[in-house]
# Entry
Amino acid sequence: MHTHFIKHNIMTLDSYNFKGKKAIVRVDFNVPLDENGKITDDTRIRGALPTLKKILADGGSLIIMSHMGKPKGKVNPKMSLSQIKDDVAKALGVDVAFAEDCAAADEAAAALKPGQALLLENLRFYPEEEGKPVGIDKADPAYDAAKKEMKERQKEFAKKLASYADVYVNDAFGTAHRKHASTAVIADYFQPDDKMLGYLMEKEVKAVDNILSNINRPFTAIMGGSKVSTKIGIIENLMDKVDNLILCGGMTYTFAKAMGGKIGNSLCEEDKLDLALEIMKKAKEKGVNLILGTDCIAADSFSNDAKTMVCSAMDIPDGWEGLDAGPETRKAFVAAIEPSKTILWNGPAGVFEFDNFTGGSRAIADAIVVATKNGAFSLIGGGDSVACINKFGLADEVSYVSTGGGALLEAIEGKVLPGVAAVK
Ligand code: AMP
# Structure
């Protein structure tokens, strides 16, 4: 009974009636713009629509807030959200008013009628949003005092934003790992029943939960990309959970070198050789099937048009570098992935930006599609693997493609996301 109560004490978008309410919604409208300020990819705007439309359909009004780019606490017209106001209006199907000063939007917010929407200017034009002191070095003796003062200002800023609305919704998964004014601090100024996750956030949180606690076996994690160092936290957390751990991409050669291999000009983190050996030892202790590349496609330069050859990942000639997984390696990856029932993929198996070195990543993607068809839950996350699955046109054939980069990785590392914790 008790756990039942706790489970349902968390307010959800579906159980809340927004009729006559003003909702302040944190979204991630950090969309890419071209040099004329035109949106080149509106995925993030489309991602937030279900939440925004539900609130309007209930008869609520919207105060939409987001960041764009990294203006570092200063006004920068190139990162103004006014550039996307009309696109947001078109996507929502209602007029959207714009508040140039998000710290003085009282009147515009007060004037909102049910069914109307207001977009606030880029939150990061204010240093208070991120809560980091600007123009002062961490080594400066006055830094701590400046930080403390900025934290106070952050609270005031969050309180101001909160004052515009009756209810707070966080639907910005991309920034959920940040404790910013609009992503977390603001929640302190709402009652427990008046703050909640948006639909996109709910989906992301559920997908991570599927991977971390709702595991059907075998569970295979595929970690690729360039470096061991940026993935070590996740690798360690996954080691307790997975049956198969595929480590691929540039990491391959740090492992090969650690095992005494000859890797030519391949990517290598010299200071991570011991770590690589430790990971191998841990995998053995925990009974995890660690799969590393055995052969590779080596190239005589870092370019799409380089001369290539297949060789052992442990014996790459001088002047050559491994840029993709070789045929034997791909077979081993596919053999582990296809029968899996839970799959996580983060990071490409080669330099997929070059068309001639996409083969390893393509083999992984195809195997994930097969496994998904056979009932696996597959989660693809992290910027580059998402770019990869989109490049192959396979995004609709996997279970879930996450919108979060850093937030997803931190969630999978087992860290609590401030943006989620704040409303729970
Ligand atoms: P990350 O940001 O760590 O996920 O790494 C993604 C990047 O790793 C992509 O830009 C790939 O081009 C790169 N990458 C993958 N495999 C290799 C490789 N064998 N050598 C160099 N870079 C690689």
About this structure: Confidence is low (pLDDT under 50) at residues 1-9. Residues 144 and 319 are 49 Å apart (CA to CA).
